[in-house]
């Protein structure tokens, strides 16, 4: 394991985000990685699925 790999293992993603995502999945929530949601200037998910509608 290189020092860069070790730093990644202790970063926010590994320490906080991934365990939280796994917890939500374990509770039955559907999880989606939207890190690149706005790639190309347009969202990759339809507006009706964003929870912003009434």
Question: Which terms would index this structure?
Answer:
54 residues; mainly alpha; 2 helices; 41% helix; 0% strand; flat
Overview of this protein structure:
41% of the residues lie in helices and 0% in strands. By secondary structure, it is mainly α. It is flat, with a radius of gyration of 15 Å.
- Counted by DSSP, the helix tally is 2
Helix content bin: 40-55%
Largest sheet: none
How many whole angstroms does the radius of gyration measure?
15 Å
Q: What's this entry about, in short?
A:
Helix content is 41%, strand content 0%. With 54 residues, the chain is mainly alpha-helical.
SSE map:
Blueprint (H helix, E strand, L loop, with lengths): L2 H7 L2 H15 L28
């Amino acid at each position: 394991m290189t020092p860069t790999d070790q730093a990644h293992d202790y970063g926010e993603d590994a320490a906080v985000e991934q365990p939280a995502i796994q917890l939500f999945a374990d509770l039955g929530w559907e999880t989606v990685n939207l890190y690149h949601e706005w790639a190309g200037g347009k969202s990759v998910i339809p507006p009706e699925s964003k929870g912003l509608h009434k």
